[in-house]
Amino acid sequence: MRVLLTGAAGQLGQALRQRVPEGVELIATSRNGGADGTGGGTALGNELLPLDLADADACRAAVRKHRPDWVLNAGAYTAVDRAESEPELARAVNAGAPRAFAEALAETGGRLLQVSTDFVFDGRQGSPYRPEQPRRPLGVYGASKAAGEEAVEQVLGGSADAGGGVRGVILRTSWVMGPVGKNFARTLLRLHRERGAGGPPIGVVADQVGCPTSTLTLAEACWRLITRAESLAATQAGATLPPVLHWSDAGAASWYDVAVAVGDLGLELGLLEQAAPVKPITTAEYPLPAPRPSYSLLDCSGTRQLLELDPLHWRVALREVLRQVLGALP
Predict the structure, then answer these.
(1) What's the pLDDT tens digit per position in 315-329?
(2) Which domain holds residue 99?
(3) Domain check: are 154 and 13 in the same one?
(4) Which of 7, 23, 146, 261 has minimal CB crowding within 10 Å?
């Protein structure tokens, strides 16, 4: 099975490369290409092919050239606040690329796994969002990701492969954090180090609720989804995956809860000599350019049952993320 991976140098892309299932020929791409030191086993060793997701023609050409069985679109424009001032770029990457991949795959016969986000919801309902609920994004980033989902549905939603399998699958996730790259956990670890010796408290928003998701567990879910789809197509005529699935770690948290946990776990793992005090604040006290959903928990029960994956509580998953940060330190 040949899989074209986008965003291979990013935090999720690196986790995916390190967990490539046996029998997968991975074609790993990133915006700039070049050598990468993640150690992921691919058909091209550690070399990443260049692929700019803002270039729709390049996305279509990559599919036509490599003719993958799957495109795993883990790359995205994720600068939520900067998207407010760069809407065209955000839309080109988050909506244009999925449409281009879907259009090319409709020609070649491959399938698409589109990684999406809880930001396609407005956060106003106060209970976990189910996959089939309507999208109501608040800002440019969420709107661009919602448009990407709509493109996949429009181009591939009504088509099935020879085995009856759905051609385009959307996997939404939330609050992604890994041992590499830029993310909330690593930022808070740095702030704890800087302020732990008598510095000012870290003010962190406490009135936005969601669930952190480790790149390690998310990567496992992505690969399990693809292998499950292949198994269904090969052995059960007519059986298929739902077109939209949700995956996050288990439990619920505010950003404040996560910040406190990073300090506690950092001390436990020896990453910190002293944790900084963390002060809960409101969204209004920390204004940002882009609006955020105040409640964005995802209902993942159907995905967990379908993929036969037992979820980890977010704090357990976060501990493993930080443990791997410790292992990477000189």
Answers:
(1) 999 999 999 998 765
(2) 2-176+213-246
(3) yes
(4) 23
